[in-house]
Specification:
alpha/beta, Rossmann fold, four-stranded antiparallel β-sheet
Length: 232
């Protein structure tokens, strides 16, 4: 069985030539199915560029990215979009909810774009919202929900069609400490159920919640270690 994620010697270079910037500099890593990995780095370290690669939002200048054994390194935008829809559930710092839609409609929307029939997408969306503890808030719009609840809607949207990878980009960045703890607990529960979670953060306290911590600095992997203090 191939690894879920395999990155081989990836570089991402901006402004090639005299003033080139190596956002990623010969990065290689493997993530197996069912892992909970945090990728941590300061602003400008390359962690966001790496997230864009892993999320099929960008392509490398050189190197190979295999997802489920399939080379996605140099796909067209349409091909990458198809892979993203099928393989990756995104959780963003800014929630990215549509304000005029209810929680349920926000979760249903990407399923509609994927061509999921109406009854099935309603069923999946209700189940996902119940899963994150929002069964009684489905008809509320984002403005009627707290920040933590909005992020849980975003998590429900990410898990509704059970993608192989959950990719969480600074998921607690806009939340207070209490809501942050709730969101991390929700993400840990999803990992405990067998989902693969990749968490991008600049915060050592958030990274310390993951089972494996990859530190990126100056476009390179500086450390890749198992968190001995990990608990569910």
């Amino acid at each position: 069985m191939p690894a879920l994620v395999e990155v081989r010697d990836i570089c991402k270079i901006y402004n090639p030539g005299e003033n080139e910037v190596r956002a990623l500099d010969h990065v290689s890593l493997t993530i197996e199915e069912g892992e909970f990995v945090a990728i941590i780095g300061q602003s400008g370290s390359g962690k966001s560029t790496l997230m864009n690669m892993l999320g099929c939002l960008d392509t490398p200048t050189s190197g190979i990215y295999l997802l489920h054994g399939m080379d996605v390194s140099h796909m067209s935008d349409d091909e990458q979009s198809d892979v993203r829809n099928r393989e990756i559930g995104f959780i963003f710092q800014g929630f990215n909810l549509i304000q005029s839609l209810t929680a349920l409609e926000n979760v249903e929307l990407p399923l509609m774009y994927r061509g999921v029939p109406k009854r099935k997408r309603r069923e999946l969306s209700v189940a996902a919202l119940e899963h994150v503890g929002l069964g009684k808030r489905m008809t509320h719009k984002p403005s009627e929900l707290s920040g933590g609840q909005q992020q849980r809607v975003a998590i429900a949207r990410a898990i509704a069609q059970a993608p192989p990878i959950l990719l969480a980009d600074e998921p607690t960045g806009n939340l207070d400490s209490g809501s942050s703890r709730e969101i991390i607990a929700t993400i840990k529960n999803l990992y405990a159920e067998g989902r693969t979670v990749i968490l991008i953060t600049h915060d050592p306290g958030i990274a310390a919640q993951a089972k494996r911590i990859i530190t990126i600095s100056d476009g390179k992997i500086a450390k890749d270690e198992i968190n001995e203090n990990f608990t569910l």
